[in-house]
Design a protein that fits this description.
8-stranded mixed beta sheet; Nucleoside Triphosphate Pyrophosphohydrolase; globular; alpha+beta; 8 strands
Length: 152
């Protein structure tokens, strides 16, 4: 009977009450090409984990443009080129100080970096680091993001 209940929960009841994940955008900031390509990681403000610049969609802006703005605000990136299409996506759980964790689907947009500014909105709140994509994959926590970085 327990197996029947578990199956009904997983296949019928849970999908009926589960809310859809929230949508976020991220910027995969990079420089160089081929084997000399590097990606830019930043630290999160709360835990100090290595992450990509990311945030919520912005009214009146495309997802790619919102990712470019997040790259500026969180990492001081001055891009040369922002891809209009996402490279891929990953799912993660955003920890919230004011409530329950929030599951998010995050679409990642490649951003070719022209230069980094020393002064930008969150300069005093984060660290940033250039690393090879494989090294970046080892530094981030989210499994889906690890895969995207290894494939990049």
């Amino acid at each position: 009977m327990t197996t029947l209940f578990a199956k009904a929960w997983d296949e019928v009841l849970r999908p009926l009450i589960k809310r859809p994940n929230k949508f976020q955008v991220a910027a995969l900031c990079y420089r160089g090409s081929g084997n000399k390509k590097e990606v830019l990681l930043i630290t999160s403000r709360g835990s100090g984990r290595w992450i990509l610049p990311k945030g919520w969609p912005m009214e009146g802006k495309s997802a790619a443009e919102a990712a470019r703005i997040e790259a500026w605000e969180e990492a001081g990136v001055r891009p040369a080129k922002v891809a209009k299409r996402a490279l891929g996506s990953f799912e993660y759980t955003k920890d919230r100080h004011d409530g329950l964790p929030l599951p998010c689907d995050t679409f990642v947009y490649p951003v070719k970096v022209d230069k980094l500014a020393r002064d930008y909105p969150e300069a005093g709140e984060r660290k940033r680091k250039w690393v090879a994509p494989g090294v970046a994959a080892d530094l981030v926590d989210d499994p889906g993001l690890k895969d995207l970085l290894r494939d990049f």
